[in-house]
Amino acid sequence: MPGRLASFRTALGQVIRTSAFKLSAAYLLIFIIFAVFVLGYLSWTSRRLLDDQITATIETEINALAEQYRQGGERRLITAIERRSRQSGSFIYLLVDRRGDSVTGNALLRVPALDQSPGWIEVNFGAPDEPADVNRLAKLRVFLLPSGFRLFVGRDLEDRARLQEVIRRARRWTVLLVLVLGGFGAWFVTRRVLARVDAIAASSARIMDGNLSERLPVTNVDDEFDRLALHLNQMLDRIGELMAGLRELSDNVAHDLRTPLTRLRNGAEEALRKAGTLEESREALLRAIDESDQLIRIFDALLMIARAETGNLATSLQDIRLDDALSGLAELYEPLAEEAGLPLRVTIEPGLTLRANRELLGRAVANLLDNALKYGQPNAEGEGPAPEIRLAARRSGEAIEIVVADRGSGIPEADRERVTERFVRLDRSRAKPGFGLGLSLVHAIARLHGGVLRLEDNAPGLKAVISLPAGLAPLPPDAHNPA
Amino acid sequence: MKILVVEDDAEAGRYLTRALGEAGHVADLAMDGEAGLEMALAGSYDVLIVDRMLPKRDGLSLVMALRAEKRTTPVLILSALGQVDDRVLGLRAGGDDYLTKPYAFTECLARVEALARRQNPQSAQLTYRVGDLELDRLAHRVTRGGEEILLQPREFRLLEYLMRHAGQVVTRTMLLENVWDYHFDPQTNVIDVHISRLRGKIDRGQGGSLLHTVRGAGYMIRDNAR
User: Fold this and answer.
1) Which helix (H) or strand (E) is A162 found in, with range?
2) Which CATH topology does A224-307 take?
3) Which of B82, B89, B197 faces A306 most closely, judged by CB atoms?
4) Could you tell me the sign of the dihedral formed by the alpha carbons of A79, A80, A81, A85, in that order?
5) A296 vs B182: CB contact, 8 Å cut-off?
6) Same fold, A224-307 and A312-479
7) In terms of domains, do B131 and B112 share one?
8) What is the pLDDT of residue A213?
9) Which phi and psi (to 5°) does residue A66 adopt?
10) B102 upstream amide cis, omega within 30 of 0
């Protein structure tokens, strides 16, 4: 039992601390105050209304008695009072003499009659045959007759008191009902809110425990919790993607660095084991250097991508004339392309300028040209258009597009998204040298400049388009480094 | 050539000084920035190799302090940092060349030798001569054994750079940097094709070849007779 009590206390504390509960309580209080005020006003006005009505009827009765008095003096008045007292009705009559003793009437005052001065009074009274402790309230008009007698005429206030009592009770019940129902409502709403919050907390706890595929519960009511949960789920998806990417990266790093490292080691071991001529040892060492150069290249490429992904362009932006920059690159690659039987055709729209990091942009285009040279050999001999590599730059609406297109076998549509990820190499390209980092770098550089890398079908072949915002400066420098 | 290596990693520093020694240079080692600055100011070194991340005083601040003392000793900055602007910052601080770790020693050596040569007044001469090959910078004329060789502008610059560093190894990245002004490591053998074209033009037949490939390092133009 104490355990249950304690857990109830915790639950209670939890409920009371929630903002939903506090809000409900505040509303409840406001509503109670309002209800009390409304009922109070009702009570006050109804009392006034009744009072006015009572006064009016008393006035009428008094006028009748005054008529009797005028016609026949005290004697006639007494007769009239006696007659009227016997009639059933709620009028109260009392005539007392100079000593205060009752002369006639249907009531006795519970206060000394002589103390009452003329005018309106409210006093307790009882019937002559009732015990002295029966007290009823009456509203009376007091007259002092010339003979020194006092006349009391009035009405029982029982009705008014009953009405007041009814209203008082209604007020009590209203407050009680509002408290109970409102309290229950608040409790219910809060429990419901808490249940949602608890569900989200439980899910996130499980996610933190390592169940990364779990998502926050989303009901179909489309309320604020659902919106929150949906957003958080999107965030979790993004984080999941990043984590998957990271895992893939580390797997790939492990694989792609291990392979050349293993070759390096094997080569050294073999050279040691064979203990051949000096010339053979030299050969082995040179191979080892080649292998380690490969490793350094992978490192460089990875570093470069990391730079481009997290980099800040602020100090390295410059206005670049695209025809200069690209024709320099074209000229660098032309002999190689020619040798590979893939003539480089260059069409650069004159006068294009761009604010960019020349180094990175050059690197990106060079990577695309490298790829075109590697994969640009046509598939089936003698079919389709003549093999060539096209390097073009043109303005396209708000963008400047740098295009590198080849006539090779292209990239299947399904793989185009994937190839920009690090270390992703399509099976067909496994045989060629490379690490699967080239397009990742181009992609990262394009994004760093506020643009995109699009891979399209060149029918046949691949058409890689770096699309950069024209005229505008690339993303403001602080957009990359929020900190 | 007297070289000061400022490198806090003992192993890397010893390797570098030893390798420089084997290449025929005299190399001293300083293990932190303060010691490095002191030695650089006191000794007369031809080239400094300075790591960027150093205890006591970082590499860039060392170079700036050195330049503030009006010392023009060429500095090669080594860095493992990976930011887009690192190179720019390094050169702005007063460095003359920049090399990212990990690097091949041949690359480092080639750059150090190129830096030393740059200090040398003879590097700015108007004509270069290697064997019977002659390059006239003013007239933009290249002759071999008196016979004129027609070169494309870029081929001319390539040959000019090679000849300015005659007898030294010039790496592919150095060529890409100095002839094409791009600072990346070309993935394919773009430079090789340019070299072989150039070779085809200048080494035709007579007099033996002057332009050599140095395996694992780069190229060298050298007079065989000497």
Assistant:
1) helix A158-208
2) Helix Hairpins (1.10.287)
3) B82
4) positive
5) no
6) no
7) no
8) 82
9) -60, -35
10) yes
Chain B residues touching A289 at Cβ < 8 A = 104, 216
The CA distance from B168 to B220, in Å, is: 6
Selected from 2.40.160.20, 3.90.180.10, 3.30.565.10, 3.40.50.300, the CATH number assigned to the domain covering A312-479 reads 3.30.565.10
DSSP 3-state of A130? coil
Mean pLDDT of B42-56: 86
Using a CB–CB cut-off of 8 Å, the residues of A that contact B are: 286, 289-290, 292-293, 295-297, 299-300, 303-304, 306-308, 311-316, 328-329, 331-333, 335-336, 339, 357, 359-360, 362-363, 366-367, 370, 373-374, 434, 438
| pLDDT single digits (tens) B85-96 | 677 778 888 888
Does some domain include residue B226?
Answer: no
Residue A335 neighbours by CB under 8 Å, 6+ apart: B190, B193, B194, B197
- pTM of the full structure: 0.58
Reported ipTM: 0.76
pLDDT in tens, B12-41: 888 888 888 888 888 888 888 888 888 888
Assess whether B194 and B154 both reside in one domain: yes
Could you give the dihedral angle defined by the CA atoms of residues A307, A311, A317 and A322, in that order, rounded to the nearest 10 degrees?
50
Q: Which residues pair with B127 in a beta bridge?
A: B136
Question: Which residues from B are below 8 Å from A304, CB to CB?
Answer: 82, 184
